[in-house]
Every structure is written in C-alpha cells, then in structure tokens.
Amino acid sequence: MGRAPCCEKVGLKKGRWTREEDEILTRYIQAHGEGSWRSLPKNAGLLRCGKSCRLRWINYLRADLKRGNITTEEQQLIVQLHSSLGNRWSVIAGHLPGRTDNEIKNYWNSHLRRRIYSFTKTPTVKTGTDQPPPTAMNAAIAVGGSSTSPALVNMTVKKRKGRTSRSCMKKNSLVSSSLERSNKSSRPKRDVDDTQRNSLTTLTPVPHVPFIKDQFEGTKTQGSCADNTGEGIKEGGGGEMYDNTAKLSSLGPYQWLDSEMMRLDEFLMQGESVDLDVQLEGLEEMEREGEVLGLNHGTATETEKAAVVTVSCGESNGEWYNYSSSHKNNSSSSSGNGWFDWDWTSSVECCNQWDEGEKMLAWLWGSCSTRNDEEERSDNHSSPKEDPRRRSFTV
DNA sequence: AACTTGTTCAACCGCTTCTTG
DNA sequence: CCAAGAAGCGGTTGAACAAGT
C-alpha cells in the first residue's frame, strides 16, 4: 500500500502561485518561522499542499536568495562540483550561496549540459597527440575552467541555428516576474545582451593554471592523505612517506577534491589496494586539524567537509566507486545518479588522435592516472573487465 | 499577423532519507 | 528497534514566451 499523500489534496490549488498567495506565505513564515510545512497551509489560510509551500518559499520567496544571472565563477563551480558530485543538486547548491538546488538543476539542464555535450561531441576539437580526449574533468574547461591546452582556448561550440537562447535574457526579479505573470499585458520584453549571448557559444580564454592532472606527475609513491604539516605521509597503501604540501597548497579547495580523487585512482591503477577506512580516518584527522580544504583557502564549511569525505573516500554505499566509474559507466546511467551523459561511442568515433577507440576507452578508464605518455597508455590497454579498481571496489 | 518551433524554469510528483515517539 | 510521518531531493512536466518562418 502506498503512502498517504502529504496532505489532503482535495480542493487544493495547483499551478502558479499568485501574488496574494506569496504575500500570505511570506507573512506567515515571517511571523512563525519555517517548518511544520504540513500544517502551514491550513494555519496560514492557503489552499496549497505543504510541499508546495515549502518549495515556493525555498525556491522563490526566501530573502537570502541571490537574484540575477549565474556568474561565470558560479558556472565554473557548478561544472566542477558536478564532475565530482554528480546530480547532487542540493549539495552543489550548498556551495553557491543564494542559489537553490532547483535553480542549479535547471541551469545545468538548460545551459551547461548541452554546452558540455557539444564540447565533447564537436568534431572541431583539435588536440595534439599528447592531449587527452574530453573527460568530465577537462570538460569543465569548456565553461571557462583551467587548462594547459591552448587548443581549447578560443575553440567555439557550434551555435545551433535559429533563435537566440533565452538563457541570455535577463532574469526578472522574483517578485516582478510573479507580478508580470499575473498581469501579462504589462510584461516587458526582455532584452538580449550580446556579450552574454556570445559568451554562451564561445569558450573564452582563461588564466593559465596547470591542469590538475599535471599536479601529480611523478608522484607514484604509496601513501594516504595529503599532509599539510610537512611531516609526510604515515599511513595508507604501503606506508611510504611523501610530502605533497606544495602541490596541494597550490590548489583551490575544489581542485583539491579532484586531485585527491586522482591520487586514489592512481594507486588503484597501479594495482594497490586502498583501504577506504584508513583513507577516511586520514581525512577525518585532517578535518580535525583544519587541513581539509583549509589549504590557504579559509575554513571549510560543513558541506565542503562532507563532500570531501564522501567523494574522496567513499562509504559503504559505493560513492567512491561511482566517481571513478563515472568515466566509463555513465553513458548508460545505470546507477541513476546522473553522471555525465557522455556518449563514449561517439566520442571515440569523433576522436582522431588514437588509432583504436579501445585505446581511448582504456585511457578514459584510467583518465586520472598520472601516467600520460603513449607507452603508458598502452599499459592501460586492458579491457574494462580487467581494470584493477574493480578488485578493490566491488559494490 | 499568425503560426510554428525551440527554450526556459516554476512547480509537481514520487521516492528516499531523516526524525520522532 | 521499529513504524509513521515529515522533510528533502532529484527527475519530469507543461505553461509561457521568444524568435523564426
């Protein structure tokens, strides 16, 4: 038997909220505070479902919501976080003050997903023989992230024929858009900013920051979590010590997430068994010491800490595995977690830098490895079934 | 001017997770 | 520990609208 509906649905209003409803809800919450959504409509005198009230408040009426377009910085952050976290919109929203999960989700679906997809699919992508094919990581570059690849700079994504994307249009303020909806005849036409329009179809040059992959060139030592104290690593795969303080210190907090993933990936590619419990302990210790995401970038928020622990070390629910496997599994989206929707087959077909698509796939499987020369790509030429990571992370 | 097509995003729905008794 | 209810989350929908024909 299914669950009872969250509230009595008979007679409840659905659809767009009116200005009057907004005012009633706002007044009520200002007087009584958030929460008790189930009883709120009745108490406030609204013919709405509690869930609807909650959504309206959280996504639209809250005073701390940021109005206006998503900035370039926010855009980059969204892509970067999405590459690490997948479709965890609420977690991603937690990193963007004033933005809601719904807003970010919509923005991703209507702006970024297609754009990044175009980036991976476009046959105009010309990379050198030593340039990696598109990955979730470097796809972030497509929206202005960092790259060592000059080939990516100024590369254009083909603009579809037809009308201008409405994404370029200025977003009305929350209240005014409500008013306009209730008074359509007075709705002003939204003008299009040419600069913004261009920015959607052209990859703009970005400051040179070493691609994250390069940060760990040559660091094949065993170990666990990064040590920011200069004392080295004392635990992990083989217990061997090394100090990567300088490298980590040069990274931003979100890059750090990726770099840690890569290093774990690297161990696994070498056939090392990584004990997730040990990794987790290491990170927790770092957290206690204020080192996690502290790295000259201020104090980590609770959300950030949670993201590090979840993404980097994983838990018994296989989150870590999902991350590393996202490069190869998500075209089928079997996990339902909504990882990047790459079409690997097409990507292989359109990529002309390697003779065999299989090699490319092998590279993708090991895309986080620090070994990037042709010889070592050949080492990764194993079929997916032979990927050593699977031995450690069978979910 | 009317119609068609493509895009956006607020809101809904159903499922999962959390909280409470 | 368990069950029920509340809250939260992510996928999906469809109205509204802009731009092309």
Give an overview in words.
The protein is an all-alpha fold and 395 residues long. Among the domains are: 19-61, Arc Repressor Mutant, subunit A, CATH 1.10.10; 212-392, no CATH class. It has 18 helices and no strands. Helix 4 runs parallel beside helix 11 and helix 11 (253-269) runs parallel beside helix 13 (302-313). The longest helix has 21 residues, at 101-121. The two termini are 30 Å apart. It binds a DNA duplex (21 and 21 nucleotides) through helix 3 and helix 6.
Residue-averaged pLDDT, rounded? 47
Portion of residues in beta strands equals: under 5%
The count of β-strands is: 0
The arrangement of helices and strands along the chain is HHHHHHHHHHHHHHHHHH
Low-confidence stretches: 1-7, 119-277, 286-395
Structural class: mainly alpha
Helix content: 40-55%
Task: Please specify the SSE layout and strand pairing.
Elements: H1 19-32, H2 40-44, H3 50-61, H4 72-85, H5 89-94, H6 101-121, H7 136-139, H8 174-181, H9 194-201, H10 245-249, H11 253-269, H12 276-288, H13 302-313, H14 319-329, H15 344-350, H16 357-365, H17 374-379, H18 389-392
This protein binds a DNA duplex (21 and 21 nucleotides) through helix 3 and helix 6.
Question: What characteristics describe this protein?
Answer:
Arc Repressor Mutant, subunit A; mainly alpha; 395 residues; DNA-binding; 18 helices; 0% strand
